[in-house]
Fold this sequence. Notes:
The protein is built from nine helices and seven strands. Helix 3 packs parallel to helix 5. Helix content is 44%, strand content 20%. The mean pLDDT is 95. The protein has a domain of 126 residues: Rossmann fold. Strands 4-3-2-1-5-6-7 form a seven-stranded mixed β-sheet, sandwiched between helices.
Amino acid sequence: MNIVCLDLEGVLVPEIWIAFSEATKIPELKKTTRDEPDYAKLMQYRIDILKEHGLGLKEIQDVIATIDPLPGAKEFLDELRSLTQVIIISDTFTQFASPLMKKLGWPTIFCNSLVVSDTGEVTGIKMRVENSKYTTVKALQSIGYDTIASGDSYNDLAMIKASKAGFLFKSTDKIKADNPELPAFETYDELLNAIKKKLD
């Protein structure tokens, strides 16, 4: 029994925080998990910047409403889901994910939650579990699934390496150089073909 575990941002949709950075003209918000391996540290950095600029959840959601999946992402996902079970495992938040899942045809997503005040200020994060991508992959394996994983960032490496097959997708030169044992692809066709070869 196979199950494919995919990252969301950078793999199927553009990076939400980069889009928000461009919309608000706040360059500091361009930093992502490709740049900062410590996710808790990265999110606190983002929350501090939001507070400093008086920005809250509504402003982020307004930008997310304008984001479309990466070209070819929905077609890739549709074909993959016709072949095997697929779960998106993301460090994004339920408050961000819904409009993007609609545009991708409502795939299953496991993600986290933001802590938001009554005034709409983002005050913290509630992680589903610690090391959520790795923990989820190990949990799926414990109930009889062979996992195949793909992602682009530091926070994807543990789930990729813990899986029976794992691939980098649209990753950075540094991450690819630091992990030469991981096959790295740039197109959905390449990734789909590599996954197909690993399906029983």
